[in-house]
Request: fold
Amino acid sequence: MRRELTTVKAVCPHDCPDTCGMVVSVDSAGRAVELRGDKDHPFTRGFLCQKVASYLDRVYHADRLTHPLRRVGKKGVGKFERISWDAAIREIADRFKSIAASEHGPQAILPYSYAGTMGKLMYGSLDRRFFHRLGASLLDRTICATAGAVGCDVTLGTRAMTDPEAAVNSRYIVNWGSNTAVTNTHFWRIEHEARKRGARIVTIDPYKSPTAAKSDWWIPIRPGTDAALALGVMHVIWREGWQDDAYLNDHCVGVKELRERVMNEYPVLRVSHITGLSVEEIEKFANEYARSQELFGGPALIRLNYGLQRHGGGGMAVRTIVCLPAFTGDWRHSGAGALLSTSKAYAFDDTYLTRPDLIPRGTRTINMVQLAEALHGELPGPPVKALYVYNSNPAAVNPDQSRVLSGLMREDLFTVVHDLFQTDSADYADIVLPATSQLEHFDIHSSYGHLYVQSNNQAIAPLGESKPNTEVFRLLAKAMDIEPELFDISDDELARMSLGETGASATGAHVGITLEATKAGPVRLNLPANWAPFAEGKFPTPSGKCELYSAREARAGRDPLPHYAPPHEDPQTKPELAAKYPLQMLTPPAPSFLNSTFANLDVARKNAGERTLEISAQDAEKRGIADGAMVSVFNDRGRFRARAIIADTVKPGVVVTLGLWWRKWTDDGANCNTTTSTAMTDLGGGATFFDNLVEVTPS
Reply:
């Protein structure tokens, strides 16, 4: 007998710029039996990455949490007993009330979340309202993207971007710190189509990633020196007279000041020493980039990503790189210029969703990068007595892992984890709550890689007793006697208000798209095809121009001009540290994982293989390391084990290990974050995962 199937439009929720459209087939028993890409999505066009193509394995995994748990064993061991939702909510509410009424006050409670799900409702809506109304400490969610976002804003202003779909018209595409073929695969399709039309693809990366290997030219820059290269390119452009003077003079401020700095301080020979690139490589890149119209028949596009900003000078690196399209006038052309993120194109009413007006005056903010310091009482303000973790797995993803774990071991710390699985973090929890998967709740999505709004329609009933974030915070708010009007609103109405449907938004935010339209499929923002927002300048900066010189930075007491800021742990500037730990280690994500998501799935770990460390033949020989040998990677913060791969994917002085493994799936109970630092970036307070000196020895 033929099965009756219902199809439901859904959205991939994971931390990826592609935000793919999905179609779920559900049988008459209410079980999802097929999941595929939505062929009607104009950007993602029906194909999914290897991780999400098998998403039903995650939804129906035997290890899914399906009911609340209370810890009965030692923290970190993972022994729990089943309890009811009523008991779990009552215990959390009672502990929160007790802490809030104590000498420490509500700021001793810390929410901890990030982008485990990117939907507007599940990422940040009623959860923020709850903690704001409670008076809990604020969390500065900086771990991924803030350095680059702030750096981009300094030069270009907020909401600065280009149209990703129009990039097919570019003829010189630079993946600068972006493994686009893996982490932005649908944009790689656009790059590939542009190449068929005559484009040249260049990748600037210390690591010969899959994207670099597939590019026309790999430029193996030394880690953390991207700003120096950009300044060297400016030097060559000005020296040779290749700049677009009309664009610089009409639409930029600070041209004279920046020219003086670049010509005096960043000659090509100095830039070569900093970056590890030859003078010839720098000159060639500057020539091809600046003269792409003449040499390749069209404009240039720089596709930046967040890896290049994960070091001490990361914010300044992005600020400096996004100056370059003004030199060439590439902003005149649709799909050209520079692209970091499209997220600020979406005028969602986040103020309505999160209600920052509820935050008590004087509430402290804790940077999520410094969780280790927060849990050890090393930050100003009261000690952290309660930690509520959702949409994240800090025991695996946070820097200085050993100190994060010792903080989570505190018996006086009350920890709640809301997740689909018993993660490394959940092992340290006092209460574990089961979360819904994307197929089991409604949400609405923007994107940071395209310009479409989409609704994720609920496809199946929640498995077991699992609940979405919004429902859990409604329950907690009721148990803590918080005003019901803040939480007595459906998820549909939250989405409608966030879109600013007719007269709904109190702040004037207006996406210009109805909720009903997004439920039927992806809807493009009200922007013209072949959109070129800065063809005539009009940058969203205080001056209205591209700010090569930033008066805001000057007022803040910082250097107002682009410059090179070296990594915190740089062999050239920290020779004593480099004498102990001479190798710069990068930790990009393994293609089979997404940060720590999917790392518990058998198929993902099988595809990832074992943990490896890619090392140059020169560095391996110096240390007596044979290809395939087990090695220890370490510094003063910690160590982990991996299998050595001697390869030409890295230059001498650089090693690469792919992350991000759960500790419980390693042979030594550690992943690469046992060596990473909680030092922050120059702008935005971001994480510095790729600013990490280590040594490697045979294990």
Remarks:
- Residues 85-101 form the longest helix (17 residues).
- The mean pLDDT is 96.
- The two ends are 59 Å apart (CA to CA).
